[in-house]
Amino acid sequence: MRRLLVQVLCITKILLCAADSLSLSEDNLKKLSEAGEQYVNEKIKESLLRVKQVKEKMEKEEEKHRHLMEALRHSGDKKRGAMQLARETEQKLEEAEQQCRDLTKSFFGECRPCLENSCKAFFTSTCRRGYASFTFKVEDFFRKMAFQFEATEQENSDKTSSAENQIKEDKTETEVLQAEASFKALTSELQPSSLSAPQDGSGDGFFKSLGLDHIFYSAFEFGKDVLGDVSSTVEDIFGEIQEAEEYFHHSDRECPRLQQLHSEMEEMHTLLNASCLQYDNRLQLVHGHTADTQRWFRDTYGGLNWLANVSSAQNIFRVITVNLQPQLQTNSPRADSIVVVSILDSAPLTVLVPADLMVEDPAFIEYIAQQALTHYKEQIRAIKMPATSEMHVGELQRKAACGTEEKAAVEKEKKFGFLCDERGYLNLVEYIIEGGRRKGDRTGTGVLSVFGAQVRYSLRDQFPLLTTKRVFWKGILEELLWFIKGSTNAKELSEKGVKIWDANGSRAFLDNLGFTEREEGDLGPVYGFQWRHFGAEYKNMHTDYTRQGVDQLQNIIDTIKRNPEDRRIIMCAWNPKDLPLMALPPCHALCQFYVCDGELSCQLYQRSADMGLGVPFNIASYALLTYMIAHITGLKPGDFVHTLGDAHVYVNHVEPLKAQLQREIRPFPTLNIKRKVESIDDFQADDFEICDYNPHPAIKMQMAV
Fold first, then answer.
1. CA-to-CA distance for 227 and 123, rounded, in angstroms?
2. pLDDT at 541 over 90
3. Which of 7, 242, 573, 656 meets the CB 3.0–4.6 Å disulfide criterion with 530?
4. Measured distance CA(621)–CA(614) in Å, rounded
5. CB 457 within 8 A of CB 642
6. Which of residues 459 and 212 earns the better pLDDT score?
7. Contact status, residue 322 vs residue 32, Cβ threshold 8 Å
8. Distance separating alpha carbons of residues 496 and 519, to the nearest angstrom
9. Which of 75-84, 155-164, 330-339, 382-391 has the weakest average pLDDT?
10. Closest CA to 381 of 305, 316, 458, 297
11. 198 and 236: one domain?
12. 348 lies in a domain?
């Protein structure tokens, strides 16, 4: 009897539920559709106004770009003029130097017989034997001098030819590199020799400028070797040679333009340097303005491209069905209502409406229209968002014209082409390499840098571990668990095969920072210490800091559980008081968590971003932290937003990154947490499994310390 009574009650509830969940009448659906259409029309008007504003801004940017290009062309003309003047001056200088060399050679030829005869006459009047041998030595000596002169002339000719070839090669480079290379070639290959004579009046300045000083030095040495026993007479004879040199030096006055031409050449160098510098700066301005405008337009277009379908749409907004879920018991909450709609002729969309919104409440249909429009925009954005390169667009169009199988491949490619793959990371790397400013840095390596950038990654059903190169997953996982532990001992990571902190914890590195008393491996109050013990007094890596300072990480988890709408869910590793004690100040300085629609998202602010080595690590590390916190708090992973301050590429990473940019992007892997974990401190490395990771091979890059 009791069992029968229970069955009757159950059947009664089912009938009541069925009655309560009946769809609304056609008339009510029509009224809801009209109200929803009115809401969508208002949003269309707002977006059209935004389109007008975008057009006005683009006109201003085009005008600005035109002025920048005019200034660039003007600088280019000045640079080309300076290069032409430098070449003309260089040619005049070479011609003048050749004339002087020819004149010197002529003078030497005229004086040679006189010098030979003087030597022979001296020998016959002083010495009684060995005349034939001495004569042979004198003639051989002057032959060697003539040969050295010819060799010197050929060497100068080769240098001139080399300089000319260098300038010709520079013309084949790109416009920016050409200016820099041309200037370097001029300063290195055409550096003017010193023409000023010594202050002591020895008169060798002219010969040094032509590379002939060693010839006359050899003459004096020969005289000392052969005639050392008759020093007084030697002085007389080689006094004549000295007079001959002074006679040659007189030719300096026959080439008065050399000094003037060298001065002009130095002025041309200065002018060319200034022209190239101005041109390069303006070229960077043009590149930067173009990239900024393209990025702004791409981001704005993503929010407005849905308007393209408005004019052809037959139905702006239509409510198809509304299923109001019943309340089964007095004390139990009502279930969300299920509403199916179509917006702008789209396929039916299902919207879950919170149970506290009643159908007669205007907020009911407003919520539905808002959610439907948002979902529609996301669909259009994912499909129509312009690709980062025209080549990519052309490839998709080519595939779309093929058979069914390739069309399916196109759809798959589109799917992980919007906020789903690493294209944002690669775009930023390419932008920095092409348009970044050259700067110095702490390590002395040199970087290309931009200030202020942001990339977004979806964490829904995927994990952002780069595929264009293999990323050290074990290092990412072990380091994060090390942070969560609050450890500052680099040896703990090193013992697990993760060496990424070894250099910063080495004896030499710590001593260089002045931490001579600190134990090797003690990094000071770095990330993990600030996450778990912010404000505590740091002593060393072995101290027990339990219940000391503020446990920011646990506070985040507690706040998400207690008050997910809070806008102050922040964890900060930047502690000014502790910075002097750190082996390395935090690069990823602050993160904020955001809860909406059952999803947990994270935004990281990274003050210093090493795009080649550090950033791939940081992306995966904070995505993993988001997964872990979402797991503990019962949420799903949403988005990871990466905001970068000084985003840079080390100059020794440029070529490896260019190779990485050429690789095909593959779908991200997925992350599986293998067991239910209740506390952030209970996670272990074995709890995580990366699935379907198919990256390209690793790319070796040197870490800057």
1. 9
2. yes
3. 573
4. 10
5. yes
6. 459
7. yes
8. 19
9. 382-391
10. 305
11. yes
12. yes
Write down the residue that tokens 């040197």 correspond to: 702
> What per-residue confidence (pLDDT) applies to 209?
42
Q: What is the chain's length?
A: 705
> Is residue 99 domain-shared with residue 236, that is, in the same domain?
yes
Residues 482 and 367 in one domain: no
Q: How many CB atoms lie within 10 A of CB 634?
A: 10
618-639 average pLDDT score: 96
Residue that terminates a domain, selected from 367, 394, 411:
411
The pLDDT, as a whole number, for residue 134 is: 60
Is a pLDDT exceeding 60 seen at residue 380? yes
Beta bridge partners of 552: none
Whether 37 and 116 map to the same domain: the answer is no
180 by Cβ neighbours in 10 Å (0-12 / 13-18 / 19+) ranks as middle
Its pTM stands at: 0.46
The H or E element containing residue 600 is strand 599-610
Domain of 398? 19-62+304-411
Just list the catalytic residues. Answer: 587
Tokens of 352: 């879950």
pLDDT at 7: 45
Q: What is the DSSP letter of 584?
A: S
| Coil/strand/helix, residue 521 | coil
With respect to residue 504, please indicate whether it lies within any of the assigned structural domains.
no
- In tens, the pLDDT along 570-600 reads 999 999 999 999 999 999 999 999 999 999 9
DSSP 691: E
